[in-house]
Amino acid sequence: MLLGLSSLHDDAETEGRLELSTVATSEAGDGGVRHGALLSRFAELVHERAGLDDTRPEMVDALGEEGLVDAAAICANFNMMVRIADGTGTPLDEGTVAPSAELRDDLGLDELTSRRVAQSQPT
Amino acid sequence: MSTFYADASVSIRDDLAEAHRLTVEGWARPGNWWSAAERLAMIDEVRRARTSDEMPPWVRATTIDGLTDRAGPLPEAAIDAVWRLTNHPGTLTEDWYRETIARGLRPEAYVELVGVVATANCLDVFADAIGVDSRPLPAAAEGEPDQTTMPGVAVSTHWVPTAPVKGANVGKALTSVPVAAEAWRRLSDAQYVPPEALIKDLAWSRGALDRMQVELLAARTSLLNECFY
Fold first, then answer.
1. Which among A90, A120, B102, B104 has most CB atoms closer than 10 A?
2. In this complex, do B173 and A75 lie within 8 Å of one another by their Cβ atoms?
3. B67-94: per-residue pLDDT in tens?
4. Pick from A53, A81, A110: which is nearest to B131 by CB?
5. How far A77 CA sits from the closest chain B CA (Å)?
6. Complex ipTM value
7. Option in B114, B191, B203 nearest A87 (CB)
């Protein structure tokens, strides 16, 4: 959802051009994100632990050393976050259930084993 | 410049290297529910799990001879939880959690385990991504976990007990175990977006990547791990 929101705050070059297909596969192109296909592929290779030696130079050419390091840090961070969320039974936040419905449908998220409904916060 | 990643071929910013250094140091200190030796044994199991042959999620690692360190300090329920969290996080269910607790883990001890496993996967994924070896582990520090339940901790919105704090559900997940919540926050701040900018500044950037690029990496990584949240 934050990807969608951030696209509304980006500059004229990318604003309104976001395509969620690039979240589903790197083969869908950039999806309105600068170097989107490369970043999506980098995340895939990090997940598969394969092919990174060939891709790091490409990342540095496109995004610089700092870009490679920050991309690695974000992949690392979300490998942490998924284990925290799924290991603790973290439910969707109430305020994000309705706004994320279309996104969940587009990406098939409601079919995942880890699907958990939002629960009311205790008062 | 930090020497923590002196072996890397790219320069790692100081705040990130320091957050990682403090994380490794923290693994080797007693937590709230586990000793330092037990916490380091969890890291060893994470590393065994990450490099093992693929196996179905329902197979307990401790049932396969020679796969895990069953002679080490961790109970089998903890070893199996480490492996499942590491290799199949998207398959976890509330029934699995309840079964794990029924095998003898206290809920807060389980929460601390989740924190250690999550941060260990985080640092090892980062090492893979930049092309260095996993960071070596320090010797275990002396001392015992305090094993004190925080006031107000209860099961409310998550499977696990949480502290009565406001904010996003994922931010509450580890709050029943202060040492785990602190380790998560330190890493998240250095690696992702500061909490104050998360929603209020959707154009926030460290400089190298814009916010859309950051969120694409976050979303793609979460989907690859089949994470609904």
1. A90
2. no
3. 999 899 999 999 999 999 999 998 999 9
4. A53
5. 6
6. 0.96
7. B114
Interface membership of A42 toward B (CB under 8 Å): yes
Assign residue B66 a region (left: φ > 0; alpha: ψ between -120 and 50; beta: otherwise): left
Nearest to A83 by CA among B152, B178, B183: B183
The domain locations on chain B are 14-146
Return the residue of A nearest to B218 by Cα. Answer: A78
**3-class DSSP string for chain B:** CCCCCCCCCCCCCHHHHHHHHHHHHHHCCCCCCCCHHHHHHHHHHHHHHHHCCCCCCCCCHHHCCCCCCCCCCCCHHHHHHHHHHHHCHHHCCHHHHHHHHHCCCCHHHHHHHHHHHHHHHHHHHHHHHHCCCCCCCCCCCCCCCCCCCCCCCECCCCCCCECCCCCCHHHHCCCCCHHHHHHHHHHHHHHCCCHHHCCCCCCCCCCCCCHHHHHHHHHHHHHHCCCCC
Contacts of B206 (CB under 8 A, 6+ apart): A66, A70
What is the pTM for the complete model shown?
Answer: 0.91
Report how far residue A21's alpha carbon sits from residue A3's, in angstroms, rounded to the nearest whole number: 12
* Nearest CB to A84; choose among B118, B217, B223: B118
